[in-house]
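DM from R.C. (forwarded with permission)

"hey, sorry to bug you on a friday — could you get me a structure for this? deadline for the figure draft is monday and I only need the backbone to look sensible"
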Amino acid sequence: MTEQYCIRLARKGDMKAIKEIELKSAVRFKGTGLIDDLLDHHFEQGLLKELIGDGQVWVAEQILPDDQSQGVTPQGPVGFAIATVLGPVAYLEEVDVLPSHGRRGLGRRLVETVAEWARGRNFPHLTLSTFLNIAWNAPFYSTMGFEKLPKNQWSKEIEEIYMLEQKLGLPVEERTFMRLQLDK
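My reply, with the result:
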């Protein structure tokens, strides 16, 4: 049986699955010393609900062939991406894929979906913050065309994210902001 996946807009009924994916995905950071105190942290549920309503959250859903009806049967979300708009900035808040479904291109497909969303709204860039030296963070985004954003090019919104990450206890010296040019 071949595994298949689709990317779709999230629905409010996906909120529990999104939280579970986020918590299970955080385990990949265990032992890195980067977010050990934040492994049980998850996206604020009220804001998640609002962003789902605004069409700014997508899920990767596994689908399996249905032998009975010759169709497919959705198996539920196995990954997600969340985008926000911060003034003039389209911002990729988070992308997570269950480790058991990793290395199948789902993270890349989710990021590409968010980039298309931002492009469709005429944002010139898609921006994110990530860890510099974790393979599935900055090095991964670099393969998609994201470039490090020099501090002298930070908007006030990016500076606010930096301060929030610092307040949350993220090791900001291990992080970077990256930007994907969309209007090429």
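R.C.: lifesaver. Residues 10 and 58 are 5 Å apart (CA to CA).
me: no worries. The chain has one domain: 4-181.
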